[in-house]
């Protein structure tokens, strides 16, 4: 588990704000599922996945119920959909922290943040395109250029089952060529063997049956329309028949975004797909669903590697230097903050030199200096420190019009910037 300090904390907040903007432009509302749910909610997602069987932080609550920290957010969102029965299409976005008991390494943590969207109640393949385009636009907005979109279709439920059985038969008849770990995976979920990155498995995985031979006409038609939609929006993609994704509930369209700026073992910056069938698994009526989750931690690692999305500068507009008794600093910072102008001061007073040093370190654009003379005159000394105004002379301004003066200077600086 990790602490998040400034400036990283500010960067994360900015990233969520950006995502909120992109999502709300496309008509998505924010939704926040709880951090803990009944263990069963996550189990229904599928008990053939490591996320559910090996990595969950589950425990017995004081009243004896089995609960778990969420390992991902889709299950909670779909559980909420079934519980509240909102009008469809239900388009939501979320951001939040998830927990998985994984082996921590760079880009893989036990506590990590995700951003995502889910849509329930729409079968139209054009929605798949909208959802994929939203993620692609977000990466562009953040300044990530080295991101590749991988897409696949797992077919309808029957197609997926037939494919799974074909894979099982194929791998079982070649069991000697499989790694020990993949033999275990095969027992639980043959599809996941395709995910194996082990050298020993590579040849067998490469020659495994292809999903394309198992797609029904309906699944093929849906997928063709998705690909045509991506083409029409100029969104580049790679068709990846081996892309199966971790969770059991995926059907039809699945996709993943990988970053060329990250180590290959942890290079997925997000992924998602259709999960028609999950609503039923949660006890609701059959409802089509689609969504994605993006990994905030990995997006920021990729941004570091690409020199994109720097942490916002933390600086204040004004710093009050009080050479009298501190009461002026107290009053003026308060007054300015109420007027929407950020303001800092040094606690415990100190010499003018010490206070000016603090003012400099704060990154303030203006210092407001109050001495005995200013108090007698009903003024403060305004000294430009940074920005366009910084070569201006210091001057005294009336004590009662500080906020108006500062606002005017900041506005003209803003206009000058453009
Ligand atoms: P998943 O739900 O496993 O498909 O995860 C979606 C995205 O969340 C992945 O593409 C990663 O970017 C991110 N992610 C998943 N697990 C972790 C983790 N343990 N640490 C950091 N990021 C993760």
CATH architecture of the largest domain: 2-Layer Sandwich
Q: Report the top-level CATH class of the largest domain.
A: Alpha Beta
Assign the structural class, choosing from mainly alpha, mainly beta, alpha/beta, alpha+beta, or little secondary structure: alpha+beta
The tally of beta strands, per DSSP, is 16
Q: Fraction of residues in helices?
A: 25-40%
Biggest sheet record:
8 strands, mixed
Quick rundown:
With 418 residues, this protein is α+β, with helices and mostly antiparallel strands.
Q: Would you give an account of this structure?
A:
The structure is a single chain. The protein has 418 residues and is of the alpha+beta class. The protein folds into three domains: 8-155 and 216-306, BirA Bifunctional Protein, domain 2; 157-214, no CATH class; 318-417, Anticodon-binding domain (Rossmann fold), CATH 3.40.50. Helices cover 40% and strands 21% of the residues. The chain has 16 helices and 16 strands. It has helices spanning 8-25, 39-43, 50-53, 74-84, 125-142, 157-173, 180-188, 190-193, 202-206, 217-232, 278-281, 296-306, 327-338, 352-361, 372-377, 402-417; strands at 29-30, 36-38, 58-60, 66-69, 90-99, 111-120, 147-153, 238-239, 251-259, 268-274, 289-295, 318-322, 343-345, 366-370, 379-384, 395-398. The strands form three sheets. The chain has an eight-stranded mixed beta sheet, sandwiched between helices. A five-stranded mixed beta sheet has the order 13-12-14-15-16, with helices on both faces. The protein has a three-stranded antiparallel beta sheet with strand order 2-4-3. α1 packs antiparallel against α5 and α5 runs parallel beside α10 (217-232). The chain starts with 7 loop residues before the first helix and ends with a helix. Adenosine monophosphate is lined by residues 72, 100, 102, 108-109, 112, 114, 246, 268-271, 293, 295, 297-298.
């Amino acid at each position: 588990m990790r602490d998040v300090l400034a400036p990283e904390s500010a960067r994360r907040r900015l990233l969520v704000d950006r995502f909120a903007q992109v999502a709300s432009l496309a008509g998505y509302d924010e939704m926040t599922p709880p951090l803990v749910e009944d263990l069963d909610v996550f189990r229904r997602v599928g008990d053939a996945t490591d996320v559910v069987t090996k990595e969950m932080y589950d425990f017995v609550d004081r009243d004896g119920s089995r609960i778990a920290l969420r390992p991902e957010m889709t299950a909670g969102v779909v559980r909420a959909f079934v519980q509240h029965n909102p009008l469809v299409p239900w388009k939501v976005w979320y951001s939040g922290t998830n927990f998985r008991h994984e082996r921590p390494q760079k880009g893989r943590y036990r506590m990590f943040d995700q951003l995502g969207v889910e849509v329930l109640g729409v079968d139209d393949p054009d929605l798949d395109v909208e959802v994929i385009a939203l993620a692609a636009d977000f990466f562009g907005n953040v300044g990530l250029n080295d991101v590749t979109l991988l897409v696949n279709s797992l077919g309808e439920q029957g197609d997926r089952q037939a494919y799974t059985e074909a894979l099982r038969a194929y791998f079982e008849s070649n069991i000697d060529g499989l790694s020990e770990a993949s033999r275990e995976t095969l027992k639980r979920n043959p599809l996941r063997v395709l995910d194996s990155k082990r050298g020993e498995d590579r040849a067998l995985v490469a020659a495994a049956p292809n999903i394309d031979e198992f797609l029904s006409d309906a699944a093929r038609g849906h997928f063709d329309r998705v690909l045509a939609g991506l083409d029409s929006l100029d969104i580049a993609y790679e068709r990846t028949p081996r892309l199966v994704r971790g969770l059991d509930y995926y059907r039809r369209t699945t996709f993943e975004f990988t970053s060329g700026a990250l180590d290959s073992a942890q290079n997925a910056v997000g992924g998602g797909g259709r999960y028609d069938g999950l609503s039923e698994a949660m006890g609701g009526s059959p409802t089509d669903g689609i969504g994605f989750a993006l990994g905030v931690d990995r997006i920021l690692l990729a941004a570091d590697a690409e020199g994109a999305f720097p942490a916002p500068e933390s600086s204040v507009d004004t710093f009050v230097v009080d050479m009298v008794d501190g009461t002026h600093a107290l009053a003026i910072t308060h007054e300015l903050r109420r007027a929407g102008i950020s303001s800092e001061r040094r606690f415990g007073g100190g010499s003018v030199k010490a206070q000016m040093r603090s003012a400099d370190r704060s990154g303030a654009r203006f210092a407001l200096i109050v001495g005995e003379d200013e108090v007698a005159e009903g003024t403060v000394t305004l000294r430009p420190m940074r920005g366009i105004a910084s070569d201006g002379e210091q001057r005294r301004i009336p004590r009662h019009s500080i906020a108006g003066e500062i606002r005017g200077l900041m506005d003209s600086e803003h206009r000058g910037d453009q």
